[in-house]
Amino acid sequence: MNNEHEQQEHAAGSSKWICTANHSFIAYAQEELRRRFGQVKATVLIPDEVIVVTLPADVIEVQRQLQTDPLIFLRHIQPVALEVDYASLESSQAISALQGYLGTKSELKPGQTVAVQIRKGNVEATNLDLQELKASLDHTLTEAGVEVVTRGSDWIISVFMDKELLYVGLSTPSENLSDWSGGALRFQREEGQISRAKFKLLEAERAFGLDLADFKEGLDIGAAPGGWTSLLLERGLKVTAIDPAAMHPSLADHRRLTILKKNASEVKLGDSQFDLLVCDMSWSPMQMVRLVADLLYALRSGGTAIVTVKLMHKKPLQTIRDITEKFSEHLEVRRLKQLVHNRDEITLYMVKY
């Protein structure tokens, strides 16, 4: 490789990418990529989380497929258009290589906005100061009339630092699958927040393109202590919360909340009473499917279900096939995704037939 920099010359119809998944799930993201694109050449950058892959499809085709039919476990992907062997260079030379790359990108037009996202793998001491690199790239972009922002940008310049190489690419937020660096979406904890589970529903709302305020009446199965219930109430819904465990005291007297302190199997609800059903419980996958299915009479036709399913053994892809098949008897499964705030689980977005 040229010591300064080398524009990647992939074989016709191939492309290189940095792929990120939740910790311990990158192998499943890699398997999804293999099933989608065929042979995948991969090298680990951060164990169990980040890999660099070569796919047998060009950049446009990969981006088209991943946006129109997203994978479950892949939370972030960045194209690799340039590799800089910074370990063999002076810091100024490495920075100049990236500045030169930016100068070739006709997509970056004056008046547009761009975010510069720099990530670091398992790298200890280095001759390259990442703060200096970020400041230099920001300056180069500003001088070209491009506004550097953190969120809501037209473009993202992604830089991943491995032990010897910088992997660099330019793409839009949707092409990266997220406008957060590495897809690591974060919400700020609020004073008085009942639980961190609220973040999961907030992320689901964003990931599935929903506005919870559009719904009128929600059913929360396994609601205690009330993290999801509290968000639905904030969005203006009337909510029925089912759980034999206690709800948070702050919810006790809410005028739009009905609390049924029972097991879900013991309740009787109105037919087609709700337009939204949510469930976030630590049950086995098939128990969860049966529990939700038994209460679907209360969800009106066209109503939405958002359900978290735990992946409790070592064959998550088979588990996902099984639960999808069962849910599909009653619901249109529109999207399955492992959210950033999921742990050993995925979240499903479904609509009742």
TrEMBL record:
One of its GO terms (biological process) is methylation. One of its GO terms (molecular function) is methyltransferase activity. Keywords: Methyltransferase, Transferase. This is SAM-dependent methyltransferase. Residues 195-282 form the Ribosomal RNA methyltransferase FtsJ domain. InterPro entries: RNA_MeTrfase_FtsJ_dom, SAM-dependent_MTases_sf.
